[in-house]
Amino acid sequence: MLDLGLQHRQIAAQVAEGFARVFAATSFIQGPAVTQFESDFAAYCGIEHVIGVGNGTDALELALRGAGIGAGDEVIVPANTFIATAEAVVRAGASVVFVDCDENFLIDPARVHEQMTARTRAVMAVHLYGQTAPVDDLRAVVGSAVVIVEDAAQSQGARYRGRRAGSLGDVGGTSFYPGKNLGAYGDAGAVLTTSAEIAARVRMLANHGSVHKYEHESIGTNSRLDSLQAVVLSAKLARLDEWNAERRVLAERYSSMLGDTERVVTPVTVPGNEHVFHQYVVRVPGRDRVVAALNAVGIGAGIHYPYPVHLSPAFAGAAQGVGSFPVAEALAGQIMSLPIYPGLTVAQQDRVVEVLLSCL
To answer: Considering the entire predicted model, what is its pTM?
Structure first.
């Protein structure tokens, strides 16, 4: 599904040099490497503030808490996302309100409008599979009083009409899990915002609610990006656009080879979006059988995700069963992700397509 060794070999020398500097300085937490990465990633995304944190789930929770979202508030979340999106809302003390998606897997602004109440304080715009959610349309629906939180974990480098993911809403959270387009060598994440007020509160909350040592203004948490991960991320950030461009070429080739096959629905890039194809997701009949057949011959196809979050046992208390969100539920039974990553060869792609078509 993903060969991280190919990326590592391209940056191994740079990472080794950066690690040596960290070891020599013994500055492992919130050191110069973290400060440099935060500054560079903020400039890359076109925003004012990046706060490195421990992981992507923490980033989303801290983004919500930094924006003042908590107990008594409702946060609208698409049903088709990784559970961390909804999990972060619960951890922030707010209530999850699920909505359906559109045929392009993105949150549907019309469904958001239907679910809004007097308690709606935020909406999670999940940039799924590598392209941005319709943030401008969401803003038109929810107005300026509702916070738009971007879940940008799958969209590092993606653009909408020239603006980077992470700069489209009020605040965003991203994951640097190793498999992401911009991935660390362990868990890591960041909060992104143009608001100095939100940034200051997030930085405080992520450091035990403290700005000055042993002075704790709030109950916070311990979620900080470490210097070694910052070294890796800086090395990869310099190559991110190049790697994303390679992903787009691979996606175009998949679509070209599969476009005339009636039994395969290939992904669509929404007008205005610059897709970075964190995943290349197709829709096929008999999906489980097809994935098993691909896996059986050593092709790492996957499913992102096999069922919507509202059908997870963790959210059974929401009392929204099968049939609640028909688009998300229908897609979940059809989708499969084909291998896509920088370094995937033409021969490997040909093999994936050959086996997929034989299965169908």
So the answer is: 0.97
